[in-house]
Design a protein that fits this description.
single chain, alpha+beta, two-stranded antiparallel ribbon, 16 helices
Length: about 375
Amino acid sequence: MNISNRFLTADYRDGRVRIGGKSYSAGIYANHLLNQYYKNDTAARLSVFKQYGWLVAEQLEHGYLKTHDYLLAGEEIQHILDTLPKLKPFDTLNIEAERKRISELFTESIAKSIIDFFSIRAEIAERDEGQVLFDTFPDNYDKKKYKIISTTISEMQRTLSFYNRISNDMQKAFAELSAFVSRANEASRLDEAHLLPIALEIFGETPSPLNVQYVPYKKNAKNQAATVARRLYFDSYYSFVLTDFFEGLHYGHYPRKCEICGKFFIMTSARRQRYCTGTSPYEVRGKKVSCRTYAASINRKELAAADPIVDIYTRRCNAIRSEKSRGTITEEFARAALELTKEYKLIAQDDEEYAKKQYPRNMKRDNLYTETDKRLK
């Protein structure tokens, strides 16, 4: 595992992402980008600091290096590290350790070593047939040192690639995530199966360069036993955001835009929820309220029918009452069946996996009545 990839690292398990020792719903960092993109003009600030980074990357690609440009590229990255903590997840990462790595990498001595390396490599490339035949190398060639410098150059190129691209990565990810949010309502149902085609059309088949390691993972401090999680080491900010978005989408977590405050929030069900639970910019009777409360106060309350869990529950309850009124089931049976439907609904609202698969089956008439009959006996 190369050192440069260790800076931006995340653990994923069961729809959760853990960074900096804290765990959140997968997809939260894609949502953070949507909300923080314009805050402090982070992307614009970062784009200023890449002039020398691009120059040095081009020089290394062509096999030469200017020490002056090299040192200034290191200074640019330090300026980028001044701004990054304004954006999640960088506020939880070890910025000081990364500063130290950059300061140790961009020095005059390393620049000289790289320049010497290119000089020796050029001499080796110009060997005549006899020298090649007998593996004759220049007197100043040190195989071990040559390998170390070669590794350093590879790390340097990865580092420059990460920081040179970070502002463009933010701009691209923000534009694509915004497009997804604006098109999400095209789906007949807001779940992975219906949202994925829209996401793939927007994001395309973009490769996400990263390295994977399997590590022990405890869901919380109380858990004694550890399970396996995937630790991902990202080569770019874009690959991180893209991974976080699709990991979230797989578990039904996707960004939505509140129609009251305009902020983005993470959804965790297939409801067509239009408002977040954050504080509304407007007051009701002189008091601060949530966006949902404000929406309800102006008769824009979300319809329960928009929630598939409530929708199934309501339809089944109506059917039970209708059968009771027709006399096809007894009052005692109807009461027990209604209690069971409510029990299933509460489980579904707490358990997303149950809500998607088992809940609709349990609420079918034959299954529900069979279970009700068992409970009455």
